[in-house]
Amino acid sequence: MLDGEVFPAIRFHRDDVVLAVSGLLGGLLLWRLGLHTQGGRLFSAPWVTLVPLTAMASVELLRRSAPRTALAVATLALVADQFTRGSLATILMFTDIVYAAVLYGTPAAARRIPVATLLITVASTIGFLAWFRRPEALLIGVVVGLVSFIPAITGVSVRSHRTAADTARLAAVQTARLAEMDRVQAVVAERARMARELHDMVAGRLSAVAIHSTAALSIDDPDTSRNALKVIRENSVEGLAEMRRLIGLLREGGEEGAPAAAPTLASLDALIEQANVNGAPGGLVCTLQDSRAADSPALPTPVELAAYRIVQESLTNALKHAAPGPVTVRLGLAGEALTVEVTSVSGSRPGPTAPGSGAGLVGMAERVALLGGTFEAGGVGAELWRVRAELPVREREMRE
Prior knowledge:
This protein is of the alpha+beta class. The chain has 2 domains: 14-176, no CATH class; 267-400, Heat Shock Protein 90 (2-Layer Sandwich). Helix content is 61%, strand content 10%. The relative contact order is 0.06.
């Protein structure tokens, strides 16, 4: 059964068809005009010249899809042409097929064909020179080189240029992909940073609002409701101010065009005071113990911001979950590391609470990891919950 599986369809390239038709028509024109390359051959009838011409034009159709087969048949056709009166069109089409066999063939063929044509050129030159014993025999070797070796070398050159161009194009594509991956990673990192800032700046305020609003709704006492509303208002105003500060950071400038200032450890007193106000209904008493020397060198801005946010988030978690009792914030500078530790009483407490999502602990761990420090959070015995972070204070030790 003859179907596409036994004889797969071969699609000829448009340029190959043009070359084949042009070569055939040119050969027919030369034949019609009686222009031949040689005379006195075994088959001297003019029409015999058309046989190798037609065969050569036919294999031009295969120069791209089957270059090895095309070269084999073309070589036989060229040899057969030497026994006829010959056609210049047949020779020119043969040079194109040699060139195509190097350009479109396998890498092995691209290496072997130039070597083989060079050997054929040298051998034919020596052979005809020994046969005729006349200097004019060298011209035969030149013609053989022009017909075989020169097209092969040209094909090697073009193939090398195309390979170099493909390599450069592939490198450009890979570079573009790497740049896109870097861009995506930068966007993800920036989104994570924004999420941490938003959570740390707003979560504490909203938690206080939720707890005191619940207290105001559940306790039917005018003084309690008034105090709760006062705390709610203070946290709402401060939350709006911090939201504006975050927007300023995202815009890389405030209302006057200057960069928005990041909170530092010098602001911890105000943070502790606000935490005492928010945690008073739940029996929380927050204190700050700073064991750093008064003449301690200034800390890098990323370290100050990370330490402040860790304390802020720890106080927020204490407001949500800690049992009545002390909440102690400790700062210490030992060697080249800043130590931040926040402890609170474990257990449940009466009164309203705010739900937690666990994002705060994740955000603190991410901040510490970005600076190359260590972080731990968990229970200490049965009564305390502790958050502890060690942050390197030298810029060269921090991760970008």
